[in-house]
């Protein structure tokens, strides 16, 4: 069937073609062989996830809608839903602000509300699709072990995608109208990052305050909580009931979600073009920097490079919001540290790997920005500065920020347990240095705006960075208890870093 | 009194660079101090690759590059100290203001603040950027961005300025300003080597013009000398006449190796 040009179906086909090619490019980096490998890797991952799902939820397949089950399912649904809202807000903000084809669409005589309606619907569908690789293995196992009733969970995912998108679009538009186009981009992105992490962090903090552990389950299964929650017949539990195969609940949840999405599209789509035009003017407006003096500061090339990196990061709210996400996960360990301050129990042992892991991840992101995300590579390369000085200055800039973020936590830890603080400091330094080195070996020129997609340029570097951070975190955790036992994980971490170095495409960077 | 030719600002000898095919193939170039040299050629001729190697942004496979008598391959840091590089895409940071950008560049070239500060102000005034000196560059037009990049290139008063298509995408006003800055630098004794597709600019501004095709310099000289050479290669037609424009001359010169190939 050929859709008539300008119709909603025609736009939808165009959108899906773009989305599909974007996904393929993300998976393959533009190479056919890589795509084949990515498909094989995804297949293996999905099969592996079925085993994980069997181990994790297989025994719950016969679950009945009692209160504890409903609470467990609702919490999982809520967690996924918050993550969906976070993702949908990202997509909506991008739709407002990224120009790509907006100028073409707005300049054409086509009915723009149709394409924006299709775009919002596409966001909803992609939210549901993104949840599937992780959720499907669990649902499939539940269907195999517990029967067809669990098919309702797929319907629930569709409903979650629809409501998450409706809320995200509604929130973004409300922000747009209340605080204006200029601030919306920043606020929406920070809120998206906070929402994404809020539920997990909130549960962890609640668990720490009540039970002194970061386990999320403990607080959800407590009798006090169960006693204070609504009865099993309450409408609150309908989404959970829908997942359990209650047809009435499923149809109601699905109908309400789709109605909410349709209403949002009907209200927002006709005005979407107007918002996009307003957003287009944001970059053109001048941002004045107040400067006390026109006198230049005396700066060595290294200091000039360090200062530049820090200034660029500080002035980029989008990048700040992206790094904020990693920082948010430091809140639970900070609370644990605060709570255990006088207890002298084994909580410090738990803190060491969390801090080391977070430092490695933060350093990796910052190193990518400083090394691969250099906006004026020719300028820096044409300066009369040896390349090793440039690299050193960028590493100093990265490690400086890592030190600034982690120093307060380590300082508090040092008062409580100097030994743990010492091990943590060493771990943070090694993990950050390893992650920075990996980014250096795998450097490739990119725009800073590609930060979120930096993993695409080299999956090997991404996995190596993650495994290195995990390895050094494990080493630090074991070293805090026994230095001798830490030799084994340290050797493994070293093996990861050395292997990555040998496979890196920049042999000249190895000596830098 | 005997006229003494100025020393060479740039000497390129047998420069070679190969990617999947030869991009620059045994190129020889000699540009004297105080000269405005335009390097012309069709797309993919090897102009940008040549300039990037001279600026120290690309390592040649073979050959010698001397800038102001300094062996740029043996001592790139010393050579970069007296050079500036500007590409068609202005290399600036969106989140910095023009003044902050100039402070950063001054830091990279290790300039004393007492020298760099007033020099920056002078450049900002000269390029009419002073009213925007404390605005972030993110909202700047292409012309303004190119002027910021030009100010950055001039802050250390380079002996040799290398420009790769610096006028691409600029409006008439900005283009005129950039041209006047370059002319001023040459008048002050500086040397400019520039690639451009705007032949009128090369015709009006360059003392000498080099034509590069398939990585080889096929012709070099003043416009008159090029006309003569083009006339030899195409005995009849517009290129042979004394009033032939650089466009006619260029097309005639480029056509000869293309036909041979």
Write up this protein:
- The complex is a heterodimer of chains A (512) and B (261).
- Chain A has 512 residues and is mainly α.
- Chain A has helices at residues 8-28, 32-57, 67-97, 102-107, 112-146, 152-211, 216-220, 223-228, 238-243, 247-280, 301-314, 317-328, 331-339, 347-372, 377-381, 387-416, 418-441, 454-457, 459-481, 487-503, 507-511.
- In chain A, helix 14 packs antiparallel against helix 19 (459-481).
- Chain B is α/β, with parallel strands linked by helices and 261 residues long.
- Helix content of chain B is 39%, strand content 23%.
- Chain B is built from nine helices and ten strands.
- In chain B, helix 3 (98-108) packs across helix 4 and helix 8 crosses helix 9.
- Classes of the chains: A mainly alpha (512), B alpha/beta (261).
- Chain A binds chain B through residues 283-291, 294-301, 303-305, 307-308, 311-312, 315-316, 375-386, and chain B through 55-57, 77-81, 83-85, 87, 91-97, 99-100, 102-110, 112-113, 116-117, 120-121, 132-136, 138-139, 149, 152.
Topology:
The complex is a heterodimer of chains A (512) and B (261).
Chain A: H1 8-28, H2 32-57, H3 67-97, H4 102-107, H5 112-146, H6 152-211, H7 216-220, H8 223-228, H9 238-243, H10 247-280, H11 301-314, H12 317-328, H13 331-339, H14 347-372, H15 377-381, H16 387-416, H17 418-441, H18 454-457, H19 459-481, H20 487-503, H21 507-511
Chain B: E1 8-18, E2 22-32, E3 36-40, H1 47-54, E4 62-67, E5 70-71, H2 76-81, E6 83-86, H3 98-108, H4 113-126, H5 142-154, E7 160-164, H6 172-187, E8 191-195, H7 199-205, E9 208-213, E10 216-221, H8 223-233, H9 246-260
Helix pairs in contact in B: 3-4, 3-5, 8-9
Keywords:
heterodimer; A: mainly alpha; globular; B: 261 residues; alpha/beta; 10 strands
What's this model, at a glance?
The complex is a heterodimer of chains A (512) and B (261). Helix content of chain A is 78%, strand content 0%.
Q: How many β-strand stretches of chain A? A: 0
Shape descriptor of chain B reads globular
The whole-angstrom Rg of chain A is: 25 Å
Beta-strand content estimate of chain A: under 5%
Distance between the termini of chain A: 59 Å
Order of SSEs of chain B: EEEHEEHEHHHEHEHEEHH
Structural class of chain B: alpha/beta
Shape of chain A: globular
What is the mean pLDDT of chain A?
82
In oligomeric terms, what are we looking at? Answer: heterodimer
Helix content of chain B: 25-40%
Count of individual helical segments of chain A: 21
Strand composition percent of chain B: 15-25%
């Amino acid at each position: 069937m050929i859709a008539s040009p300008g119709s909603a179906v025609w736009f939808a086909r165009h959108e899906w073609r773009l989305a599909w090619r974007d996904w393929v490019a993300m998976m393959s980096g533009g190479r056919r062989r890589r795509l084949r490998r990515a498909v094989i890797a995804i297949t293996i991952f999905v099969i592996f996830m079925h085993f994980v799902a069997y181990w994790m939820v297989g025994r719950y397949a016969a679950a009945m809608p009692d209160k504890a089950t409903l609470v467990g399912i609702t919490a999982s649904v809520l967690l996924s839903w918050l993550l969906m809202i976070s993702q949908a807000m990202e997509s909506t903000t991008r739709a407002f602000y990224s120009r790509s084809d907006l100028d073409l669409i707005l300049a054409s005589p086509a009915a723009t509300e149709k394409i924006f309606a299709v775009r919002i619907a596409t966001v909803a569908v992609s939210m549901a699709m993104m949840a599937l690789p992780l959720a499907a293995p669990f649902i499939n196992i539940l269907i195999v072990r517990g029967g067809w009733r669990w098919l309702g969970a797929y319907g629930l995912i569709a409903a979650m995608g629809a409501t998450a998108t409706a809320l995200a679009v509604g929130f973004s538009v409300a922000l747009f109208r209340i605080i204006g186009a200029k601030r919306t981009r920043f606020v929406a992105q920070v809120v998206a990052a906070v929402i994404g992490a809020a539920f997990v962090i909130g549960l962890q903090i609640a668990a720490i305050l009540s039970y002194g552990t970061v386990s999320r389950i403990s607080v959800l299964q407590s009798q006090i909580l169960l006693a204070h929650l609504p009865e099993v017949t309450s409408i609150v539990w309908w989404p959970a009931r829908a997942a359990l195969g209650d047809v009435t609940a499923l149809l109601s949840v699905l109908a309400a979600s789709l109605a909410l999405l349709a209403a949002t599209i009907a209200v927002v789509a006709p005005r979407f073009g107007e918002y996009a035009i307003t957003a287009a003017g944001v970059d053109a407006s001048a941002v004045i920097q107040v400067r006390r003096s026109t006198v230049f500061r005396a700066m060595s090339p290294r200091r000039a490079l360090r200062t530049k990196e820090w200034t660029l990061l500080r002035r980029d709210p989008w990048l700040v919001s992206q790094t904020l996400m990693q920082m948010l996960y430091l809140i639970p360990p900070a609370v644990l540290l605060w709570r255990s301050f006088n207890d002298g129990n084994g909580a410090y042992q738990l803190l060491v790997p969390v801090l080391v892991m977070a430092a490695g991840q933060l350093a990796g992101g910052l190193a990518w920005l400083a090394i691969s995300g250099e906006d004026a590579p020719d300028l820096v390369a044409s300066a009369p500065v040896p390349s090793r000085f440039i690299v050193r200055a960028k590493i100093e800039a990265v490690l400086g920020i890592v030190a600034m973020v982690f120093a307060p936590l380590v300082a508090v830890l040092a008062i409580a347990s100097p030994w743990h603080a010492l091990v943590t400091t060493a771990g943070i330094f090694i993990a950050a240095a390893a992650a920075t080195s990996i980014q250096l070996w795998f450097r490739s020129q990119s725009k800073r705006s590609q930060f979120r997609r930096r993993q695409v340029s080299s999956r090997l570097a991404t996995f190596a960075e993650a495994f290195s951070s995990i390895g050094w975190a494990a080493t630090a955790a074991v070293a805090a208890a026994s230095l001798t036992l830490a030799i084994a994980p340290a050797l493994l971490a070293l093996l990861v870093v050395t292997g990555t170095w040998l496979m890196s495409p920049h042999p000249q960077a190895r000596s830098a | 009194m005997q006229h003494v030719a100025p020393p060479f600002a740039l000497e390129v000898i047998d420069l070679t660079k190969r990617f999947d095919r030869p991009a620059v193939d045994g190129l020889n170039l000699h540009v004297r101090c105080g000269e405005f040299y335009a390097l012309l050629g069709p797309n993919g001729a090897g102009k940008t690759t040549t300039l990037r190697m001279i600026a120290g942004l690309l390592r040649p496979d073979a050959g010698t590059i001397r800038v102001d008598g300094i062996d740029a391959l043996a001592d790139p840091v010393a050579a970069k100290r007296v050079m500036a590089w500007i590409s068609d895409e202005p290399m600036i940071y969106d989140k910095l203001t023009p003044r902050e950008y100039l402070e950063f560049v001054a830091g990279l070239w290790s300039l004393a603040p007492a020298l760099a500060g007033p020099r920056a102000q002078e450049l900002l005034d000269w390029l009419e950027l002073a009213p925007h000196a404390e605005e972030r560059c993110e909202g700047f037009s292409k012309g303004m961005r190119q002027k910021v990049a030009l100010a950055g290139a001039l802050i250390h008063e380079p002996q040799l300025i290398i420009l790769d298509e610096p006028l691409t995408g600029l409006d008439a006003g900005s283009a005129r300003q950039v041209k006047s800055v370059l002319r001023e630098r040459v008048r002050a004794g500086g040397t400019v080597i520039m690639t451009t597709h705007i032949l009128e600019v090369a015709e009006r501004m360059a003392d000498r013009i080099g034509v590069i095709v398939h990585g080889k310099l096929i012709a070099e000289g003043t416009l008159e000398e090029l006309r003569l050479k083009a006339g030899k290669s195409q005995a009849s037609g517009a290129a042979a006449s004394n009033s032939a424009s650089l466009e006619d001359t260029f097309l005639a010169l480029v056509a000869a190796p293309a036909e041979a190939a």
